[in-house]
Amino acid sequence: MPRMLDVSDDVRAEIGDEEADRLLAGDNAPGSYDCTSCRTQGDSDQERTSTVLFIGDETAVLAFAHATCLPSQIVQVTEEQLQGAVRSISGNAHAPAGEPEKAVPEQAVLGVTSGLVLISGELHPALVVEPTAAIVRPGSTDAGDDFLPLLIEQGFMPLSEITTVPPVLHGWSVLLAAGQLHAVLQPSSNGGSPVAWWQAHQPLQVTDSWRAAANKHQQVLMFAAPVGSIGRQPREDLLRSALDKAAANGKLVGSALPLAGT
Predict the structure, then answer these.
(1) Which domain of life is it from (predicted)?
(2) Which tens digit of pLDDT belongs to each residue from 210-243?
(3) Whole-structure pTM over 0.85, yes or no?
(4) Rounded to an integer, what distance in angstroms lies between the CA atom of residue 97 and that of residue 93?
(5) Phi, psi of 82, deg, nearest 5
(6) Exposed (0-12), middle (13-18) or buried (19+): which is 73, by Cβ within 10 Å?
(7) Phi and psi of 119, rounded to 5°?
């Protein structure tokens, strides 16, 4: 029985017509799967399903997502992310023709909150990033949380307090288009175009005051903390209090990221 699969032109061009046609005919495609976006179960027999191709420097992995979560597309990731983040779930993903069999990459689920942060009497646009679970270093078998060390290795600064604007992290940027937040971009490992470190499933609305501050400063402050450090705060004053507490506990990093777009 044919699956309810969407295969974009970009994905078809990458995996080839033969592989794409096999997928659409129901061969090599899963019935049930874990959505690579929202992580809940989907069924390509019952609901529209997108094919999502993750491409590293040397490896490509085909995964599946609810069409309501993600369109069929190609997602560029680093080889380390792709190799280190795969998990063994039978039938949930497979490699395109000519590639070794892999499982769907376990993309970190990052909660992102926007808000204005007051520093030295001036409001700055900020993004606060907190994962929904501990982040383990790619390839590690330890059960710890390496989220902050990994970001520090990328150039983010440990913060014990928020009294000054953190330094600019060149090569990273925040993509804002048509007044909506689309992605946080990081440098490509091969020196090419920046790749998405975090990408919104759907563009996120930001307030007029946040956008105005971003356009004024031409940069956005990004703060990151391990799971359980910040939480979903309904007001900016509560968000600031949670940031200050995380900083005092040694659980906060931050940098200023140049603004891409308007």
Answers:
(1) Bacteria
(2) 999 999 999 999 999 998 898 878 788 899 999 9
(3) no
(4) 13
(5) -70, -45
(6) middle
(7) -135, 125
